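Researcher: Quick test of sequence recovery. Tokens follow.
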């Protein structure tokens, strides 16, 4: 079973500058749909062949992206199957912890998406630490964008994955996934994962940077933490099928040219990692709908599968 731990939900109404100004810099060669709007139909096509997925919005006032968590819940319900939702909170807001508790207790969202550089601050800021503390207390895994971005919000020095060493030391029971293997700081990501049992990383977006991904995979194998790398696509920017194909090409390339190759068994294990189990997430029982299932528009302007009304 393929699990895609990194997929997005948003529409143009959630986006403003500088996000919209920088979106033109995002590579589209691995996307099969428009990248500024996600519908149920486009989502199902993008995440196939994944059978389980994690989807989230982003709340980052400094970057011009704000997806209401209630909208994420509605989207998860419309998709159905084995898709679960993460909330997002902007730690610079006074009510961030209250929103975490509301989303967990009232909305049933099972994790948190954070992006310090998108949110214009450091993961070590006291406002951030209170959110990490709440996540650990509630048993919620955190997906954290700790790496380069395409907008001009935040400071690169606040995006280093090495900063998460302090977070993992302060909150040892907190499960964290470093998005995009923390590119370009892939080696920092590897050593942070090696030091801390509950720190993982995902492969999302990196099919757009195959050289970086090849170096990252061989690095984490040499550091002994390839088993902590989870499959993620970064839909809608990268579709899951395209990401799987790219991983096969990269693995084959390393087998021909790398000192430390990614074997077929290594790749199989990465693609079929029990990510929900590792993150402490209970999967819904229903299978995810297939993209060829009947889809009809809803009055709200999204789309919904007949079998999951």
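Model:
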């Amino acid at each position: 079973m393929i699990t895609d731990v990194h997929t997005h939900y948003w529409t143009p109404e959630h986006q403003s500058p500088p996000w919209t100004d920088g979106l033109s810099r995002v590579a589209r060669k691995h996307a099969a749909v428009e990248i500024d709007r996600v519908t149920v139909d486009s989502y199902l096509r993008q995440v196939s062949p994944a059978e389980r997925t994690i989807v989230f919005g982003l709340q980052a006032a400094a970057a011009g992206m704000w997806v209401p968590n209630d909208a994420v819940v509605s989207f998860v319900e419309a998709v159905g199957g084995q898709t679960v939702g993460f909330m997002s909170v902007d730690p610079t807001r006074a009510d961030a912890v209250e929103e975490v508790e509301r989303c967990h207790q009232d909305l049933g969202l099972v994790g948190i998406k954070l992006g310090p550089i998108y949110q214009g601050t450091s993961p070590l800021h006291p406002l951030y630490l209170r959110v990490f503390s709440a996540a650990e207390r509630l048993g919620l895994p955190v997906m954290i964008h700790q790496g380069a971005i395409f907008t001009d919000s935040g400071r690169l020095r606040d995006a280093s994955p090495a900063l998460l060493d302090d977070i993992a030391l302060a909150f040892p029971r907190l499960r964290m996934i470093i998005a995009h293997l923390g590119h370009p700081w892939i080696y920092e990501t590897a050593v942070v994962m090696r030091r801390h049992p509950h720190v993982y990383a995902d492969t999302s977006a990196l099919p757009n940077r195959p050289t970086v991904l090849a170096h990252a995979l061989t690095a984490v194998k040499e550091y002994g933490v390839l088993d902590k790398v989870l499959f993620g696509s970064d839909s809608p920017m990268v579709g899951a099928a395209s990401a799987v194909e790219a991983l096969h090409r990269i693995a084959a390339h390393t087998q021909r040219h790398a000192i430390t190759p990614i074997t077929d068994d290594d790749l199989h294990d990465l693609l079929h990692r029990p990510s929900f189990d590792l993150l402490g997430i209970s999967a819904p029982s229903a299978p995810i709908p297939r993209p060829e299932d009947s889809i009809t528009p809803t009055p709200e302007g999204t789309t919904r599968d007949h079998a999951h009304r």
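Residues 294-309 have pLDDT under 50 and may be disordered.
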